[in-house]
Design a protein that fits this description.
Elements (H helix, E strand, L loop, with lengths): L3 H24 L8 H7 L42
Length: 84
């Protein structure tokens, strides 16, 4: 029962901090424009699509020997040379 003497003031302090933070956010304009950022996702901007460059070819960086498979970390595939 004596723990309530500690928890009630802590709860009141947290409540006061939350109310102060809320009014600070309103004062600084955090809630001024709620619609434009939500609509920004919906509006399609065809000009912002990245162009595919010629450097994005899958053959680039393939330094493995012919006939051997290039395994990435985490791949569980066995190469032809490791057949059981």
């Amino acid at each position: 029962m004596s723990v309530l003497y500690l928890l009630i003031p802590i709860g009141i302090i947290f409540l006061l901090l939350a109310v102060l933070f809320f009014f600070w956010a309103i004062k600084n304009g955090q809630y001024d424009d709620m619609e434009s950022q939500a609509l920004k996702i919906v509006i399609e901007d065809h000009q912002s699509k990245p162009k595919k460059s010629s450097n994005d070819s899958p053959e680039q960086g393939n330094d493995s020997e012919p006939g051997k498979h290039n395994q990435q970390p985490g791949d569980n595939k066995q190469s032809n040379n490791e057949s059981v």
